[in-house]
Amino acid sequence: MDARSLSLYRWYYSRLCQWGLGLAIAVDLLLAFVERPSSMSVSSDPRIRLPPWEPPCGFTQSIEIVCLVVFALDLAVKGYLIGWEEFRKSKWLIGYTVVITFSVMDWVLSVSMACDERFRVRRLVRPFFLLQNSSLMKKTLKCIKRTLPEIGSVFLMLALHLFLFTLIGMLLFAKTDNGQWKKYFRDLPTALTSLLVLLTTANNPDVMIPAYSLKRANAIFFMIFSMIGKQGLSSSMSVQTSIIRRRLGIRAAFQVLSCQGARQAHPPLPQYNSPVLQRIQVVFTHYFLMILGNIMALANVICICTFLVLNSEKSTTERDYYIIEIVNLCFILYYLFEMCVKIFAFGWKGYLSYRSNIFDCFLNILLLILQITILFTYRLPYSHWDPSSEGVLSLWDLLRLINMLIVFRFLRIIPDIKVHSRTHTLTRRLYVISNTSMENMASNLTMQCGTYEELGYWPNNFDDFAAAIILLYDIMVVNNWQAFLTVYNRYGTPWSKVYFVTWWLTSSVMWVNLFVAVILEVSSLRWIHAYIQTYMHTDMHTCMYEVKQIQEPTEEELLCQLNQHPHLHLHW
């Protein structure tokens, strides 16, 4: 590096230059509060809000072009210092170039249209300037990228939990004339939203009472759903559970190393003399058969879901049961075929040594009995039967029972699902989502909004950037976030449900938990440091803080859980 480049390097990384670059980034981000629709008003309540101050055309554009020039100079200096070869290898700098070019092009369009453009797309990419100039945020994104499979598996489990219980709920509770009941379980999107609200908020009675008032036993469904969702899925993120898992894994590793040998988990496969039977056995013991079984179970659930969606508005007597009955019969025959070939390939003892096979066998026998009952009672075709009055159980009740067992059987795929400075990141997401929502949902509410109005939530809207940020923050932290979802779905578009649920998942579930994880990680490091210092008899006062309340699992608890593990078989 020559003297000129060295002096440029020192000047670029000087405090004055870096402060100037940070100021340009801050000003560029803060322009959203002044740009149309302006947030320069005392209140965001549309009932009492005065017309906000609107900057003249060219005012914000002049400031923005100065910031873009600063960013272009920053890019040029970085490219000069690292050289062209390194510049081409840097994805961040290439992205920096693309974002600056795109922003300048959008700025030119805005000026040429005399500030009368409907959308300012460049506002969505402004957080990239903050992201690109922060090494801490780059490291954070890299860490998040590494944990995406684990985060995705948790979301997949949550989606599967909601979807299956939605189908079971729609099958379990027949259509009635109860107006409140229609409000929560009228169709598939409404039922999904109701159970999501039930899982994420404390207003369980709002969803449960309409069904509970009809039958006392209906509360069992909601209790099981809440316990699995809140206690089962949510507890996986608790600190105590994480510590027990870590200690259990370490202890299991030493147990495996110190044991005399491994006990055989499953009986040996039966031996066949015929080469043809041996080849068939190899085919039916292949992992592909389990994948095919899961695909068929998923296809069956999708067929049931389609039937429920198409017949959600029809009464019991108007529904066509012939097609769904034939479809279920075909899938049940496949389930029986799958069970028989597994028994042939593994043998009775080998087949029953798998818990999933016992689960499948029990449900397959129940499905076969119910299917035979339908065929002998109603025969085919049975269009002349009254589906709600014939037999000990009506045809609709038998079909509901079969469909619920098929949906319950789909739980077999759960064992195959492997559950494997954030303030800046949260700010970036708030900025992007606020701009998107403000552009698409502003001034959609023109009528009285029921619960939204009763709660006095009028100031929470998407009419300007500041109000959009507060609304998204409220959704992230308040308990009854479904009030916003309901009103925008009612007077806007049904796709607003997807928007609000996506924001709630990414903000309240993902980013807040990541922020808590950072705090816990720091506390854990402090605890380890304090433990070492205690062991060294130095600095005793550093041990007095709250992390010591976390209890370590006992030896008996670890051994008990190891002995109950389905895939760890040790003998001494």
Commentary on this structure:
- This protein is mainly alpha-helical and 572 residues long.
- It has four domains: 131 residues; 98 residues, Helix Hairpins (Orthogonal Bundle); 153 residues, Four Helix Bundle (Hemerythrin (Met), subunit A); 117 residues, Helix Hairpins, CATH 1.10.287.
- Helix content is 67%, strand content 1%.
- The chain has 24 helices and two strands.
- The protein has a two-stranded antiparallel sheet.
- Helix 15 runs antiparallel to helix 16 and helix 15 runs antiparallel to helix 18.
- The longest helix has 40 residues.
- The relative contact order is 0.09.
- Its main location: membrane.
Summarize this structure as a short list of keywords or feature phrases.
Ion_trans_dom, single chain, two-stranded antiparallel ribbon, 1% strand, 572 residues, Four Helix Bundle (Hemerythrin (Met), subunit A), membrane, mainly alpha, 24 helices, transmembrane helix, transmembrane, Helix Hairpins
Lay out the secondary structure:
Blueprint (H helix, E strand, L loop, with lengths): L2 H10 L2 H16 L28 H24 L1 H6 L1 H22 L14 H6 L2 H12 L1 H25 L6 H7 L2 H13 L3 H9 L6 H15 L5 H20 L2 E2 L12 H10 L2 H24 L11 H31 L2 H24 L16 H15 L12 H20 L9 H4 L10 H13 L4 H10 L4 H40 L19 H9 L6 E2 L1
Antiparallel strand pairs: 1-2
Helix pairs in contact: 2-3, 3-5, 8-10, 8-12, 8-18, 13-24, 14-16, 15-16, 15-18, 16-17, 17-18, 19-21, 19-23, 21-23, 22-23
